Structure formats: structure tokens, C-alpha cells
Sequence to fold (298 residues):
Amino acid sequence: MASTIEQGIATALPEHESASNTGADFSLSEAKVWQKKPSTKDRGELFHRGLEPTPVDPVTGLAYPIMPHKGQLTPDNSSDHHAAHKRLRRELSEVENGVVIRTSRMQKVYGPGGSLLIGNKLMPHHTPHQRYHYFFSGPEKLPEDSHEQFKYGVWAGSIYVPEFGLDVRGDKPRLARMYPDQVERLMDRQLYVGAIDTLRLFLRQYVMDNGIPQIDSQDIDRFMNTEDLEQRIEFGRIILDAASRIVSEPMETDFARARKRGRVKPMLGKCVAEVVQMNVTFGNQKKLVNQLHTALAA
Fold:
């Protein structure tokens, strides 16, 4: 079932109209996109100062993506958009693991990026990336504690694509329902993890800190007491797989629903635990079991 926010927006979008020509006007308060309204009577003025908070998907907390480009994107005709911005805001520059949030959700967008100066007139030649920053200041809230950061990182690592995207082509941005070909372009080519090693290290540490304390002591004893490297690798993977399932359990229902609706990249895992396991156990297995052994011996 769609969320309350999605239901509210969807009522404004006829089922069979093209997403390129329809959308929910961001000034519609009934869409309930923002947690609180800006303290001004002239909302329209905010669209010309880059002060409007970027709306986020209510299930995942990820900012809605910019509507995908139809053509082929190359390094010469595109730029990289950070879903979590601005770079120096406290949640990204001061909070622990802020770099994970900053780099785990990226989008290839047509044309050069960069913010337009306040007061600049919006022109037809301005690119989607420039137009986005002309309108929006970034998500109003980003995750700060490790549990919320974990959820954010898993959704980003799953290449989750929401039902709606940001249409920034006109004089006022709109939230538009995306069609299957648009979802496919985002999922296959245009949404990506900017620093996959950073995300994997964070997920691994989170699993060790929060999942392993709940593992049966007999499994841990087998791992700690064997001198055989192959057995230690096998026992280590058993421990990490079990710990990944434990920490992933609160997300299973939402993830299963998203996967059924085709909103996460299927090759990355049949369930959220598989997504976490794949990232946690990726890499040099000897180094992995040494790290696990050090953590358990502490």
C-alpha cells in the first residue's frame, strides 16, 4: 500500500498521463511533502532563492531524484549530483559517519552542475542540475544516529528508486510520477553509490557492533578456537551472515514491498539481509576474518 504522502500526491496525477507533462505542484500544502512550512507568506519567492527543502521519500528518507535524462550520459555531458547536501551542513561534516550519507546516494545528471547565484534569472539553457540547486536547499533532515544511517545506507546501496521524481524543467518544480522506463534508467545507469568502500566499511562495523552481540556464543567459540584458516573463514561468514539478518530484520517488510514493486535493483539481493551480507563480506576474506577476530577478542 502506498504511503500517506504518496497517496496524497498520486491523487493529483492521472494514472495514464505522461510523467513529463504532469506533476504535483510543490506549493500544494495538501501533498504534505514538508515536515513544516517555511515561515513566509510568499512561498513562490523561495523557489528563486534555493531555500525550499528538498522533499524526501517517506519510507526511505532518500531525497527524490531529479527526473532522469532520456539520452546517453557520458563524463563530457553530465555532472554528479549528491542527494545529501550541502556539503558543509552539520549532519555531513560534523556528525560521525556523515561522509557515508554524503557519498552513498549519487545521481548522474545531464549537463554541468553548480549552484546559480541568488538573484540570477532562470534561463532555458540552465541544466537540470543547475535548476535543481536554483530551487532547493537539500533535505530538511538527514540521519544522525548510526541506526538511521544504517537504514539510509542500505536503501542507497540497494539503488532504491521511488515512485516520484523531481521535474525541474519549468519555472516551478513539480513532483512527477515516473514510468517504468524512467525507473529503469535511474536504476541501471543514473543512480549509484559514490564511495562503495566507505559504505561497506560502515555497514560491516555496524553489523559487528549491533548484530554480533546477539550471536550464539557457541558459533563465536568455534570461530575463535580454530587455527585452520579455511574453517575460520567459513565460521566467520556464518557469524556475519547471522548478524546481518539480525540487524536487517526491522527493514524486511518495507524492503520486501519495495522489491515486489520493482523499486530496488534485483541483482543486489532477494531480501535486505542479502544486500547487507553481500556488502559486509565483500573483499579479502583473510583480512575480513582478522578484523572479526580482533573485534571479538576485544
